[in-house]
Amino acid sequence: MKELALDIRDLHASIEEKPILKGVSLAVPKGEIHVIMGPNGSGKSTLANTLMGHPSYEVTSGKALLFGEDLLEMKVHERARKGLFLAYQYPVEVPGVAFSRFLWSAHEAVTGGKNDGAKKNPGKVLEFRKRMNTSLESLKMSPEFGKRHLNVGASGGEKKRLEICQMQMLSPRVVIMDEIDSGLDIDSTKVVAKSIGAMRSPDFTALIITHYPRILEHLEADRIHVIANGRILCSRGPELAKQLEKKGYDWILKEYDADGR
Amino acid sequence: MVDRKAALDINEEKYDFKIPAKAFYKSAMGLTRETVKDISRHKKEPKWMHDARLRAYDIFLRKPMPTWGGDLGGMDFDAYTYYIKPTEKREESWDEVPKDIRDTFEKLGIPEAERKFLAGVGAQFESEMVYHSIHEELAKKGVIFLDTDSGLKEYPDIFRKYFMSLVPPEDNKFAALNTACWSGGSFIYIPKGVQLDIPLQAYFRINSENMGQFERTIIIADEGAKLHYIEGCTAPRYSTKSLHTGVIEIFALKNAQVRYSTIQNWAHNIYNLVTQRAAAYEGATMEWVDGNMGSKLTMKYPSIYLMGEGAKGNVLSIAFAAEGQHQDAGAKIIHNAPNTTSTITSKSISRGNGRSTYRGLLKVSKGAVGAKASVKCDALMLNEESRSDTYPTMEIGEDNVSIAHEATVGKISDDQLFYLMSRGLSEADATAMIVQGFIAPFAKEFPMEYAIELNRLIELEMEGSVG
User: Fold this and answer.
1) Is A102 part of the contact surface with chain B (CB cutoff 8 Å)?
2) Which chain B residue lies closest to A116 (C-alpha atoms)?
3) pTM given for the model
4) How many structural domains compose chain B?
5) Counts of helices then strands in chain A (DSSP H, E)
6) Which chain A residues are Cβ-neighbours of B452 within 8 angstroms?
7) What's the CATH superfamily of A4-96+175-255?
8) Is there a domain that residue B432 lies in?
9) Which of A91, A109, A117 sits opposite B424 (nearest CB)?
10) pLDDT per residue over A37-54, tens digit each?
11) Which of these, B44, B58, B100, B241, is most buried using a 10 Å CB contact count?
């Protein structure tokens, strides 16, 4: 059996004492790309935020392991340093902080670097900048975005692309994408999907959370999970996405006698 | 839940060192008429100054303690030494400054900064400027950059014309106290049309315990002149409380441009009660860039009187109130002429039980038609116990004006912190980054070296304070 990148067992989580996750179990083997789909309010974003450790979500029972290590015991930044990366549905704006400066600090934090400035370590900073510009270019973004304040004044699509740029620069082992495709036009969806596909390797694992199957037209997934009412309803091969695209969610909820919420 | 005990008192430790107290001359503790006479006699001043000091002393005694601002209950006017002369004379070469005092300023990085990016430096130790120097070519152009005592001696007519003309001793109790006991500070005159591209700096250091420092600064920028002046202040930590009460009077004549930047980083037991006032005449621009990081209590409201048509006034201030500190700061702008414009941007950060107060006045006098003003106050609180208050006053006596006012009070959001931490930054680093972003508009107004230092200090402080 393949090593599991993510191993989630009977996970329960609440927000403001309201239970949202009601026993999620999910295994994602290393090197695979999995997709979680489900109707609105089914617990998709809660799962993403709980795994990353958002303070608003309280884990009431269950387990979550990252390469066998207890994720729930780790602080948020420790999870990142262990190789977990969450691409957000709504990336937060941080005024006054240049994107490149933020990304350099994050890069140094996850790679154990010294976070020296350009004066102390000009070579490394220069190389980083070059890589960042290449990444932005591949996402059809101007290198100007490096100088702009983190997510401030960026459109929804630009923010999502900046998330992908961060993912490329921080080389995470496991990526969770929370509705990375929501609010994107067709071209942007394609750019984002292709850049995720390009990351595919035996050392890269992804869990893509989405409401719409559209992103899967440009991205090959190994497995599709349907989430409803805080539980994984079923897990099937990539053909499930096509069915969901054609028929919506109702039929599968009925098949499993679930109400979606 | 995220622990929000992140600190930020701007690394007091770096400045917390002292040298053994040696004084060339020192007045007796406490303030009497005799002390005031003694200071004047010691400085061999003209009679008018001697009399002005005594008159100010009487006003100081008469005026009640202000009760509208910070808590001054811990002050004891009998417990300070009002005048300490550390060396026999002011030097123009660091080599001539006594070694222990020179070492102090070396540690603070002043001579190095002077060599690298300043046009001139004044260094005040206790009550006197011990060092004052300016680039030769500026001196040749007629730029005067002296300690204020020498200014009185060498340029008595200019001095007398401007001294007390903007801040009379009647203005407030502490302006009166300063006028009675003033010593040191900078006296600057920039001749017509002379523009300084790099800054002048004065550094104020208190070394002794129970010290009162009362510098007096007068800056005159003649028509079309340009100046950026930077002041820095630090002191070692003692268990007793010291007092710093400066008065600064600035005159930006027709079409002159003056920027006065402060990075105040006094030890957390110092009362910092300062009166800063400027007059900007026709077409002139006056800017206060005011950073208050240190002190126990600061009460300081840099003011600008816009006296001539088209004059501009800008105040950019940042206050950082850590545990046990109260920063009561703000700005006053008075539009006294047509088509004058002003902006006030105030940013405050409080943490622990720290308290920051914005207290401001915007006044448009009758006849100041076409005046444009905007006031923007942003407060950031780092935890539940910290406090922030805003007291904006507006007196608008003219109809044909444009006024904008905006105020925000916020906490560091869990979402921002979570976002940065989810990219690998520790809570301290994430908090520091958010705070640095918040003050970025302020930091970028300083020469690069200061901005970097400011950011580094915030990071250092964050590291030490989060478990």
Assistant:
1) yes
2) B456
3) 0.82
4) 1
5) 8, 12
6) 117
7) P-loop containing nucleotide triphosphate hydrolases (3.40.50.300)
8) no
9) A109
10) 988 889 999 999 999 999
11) B241
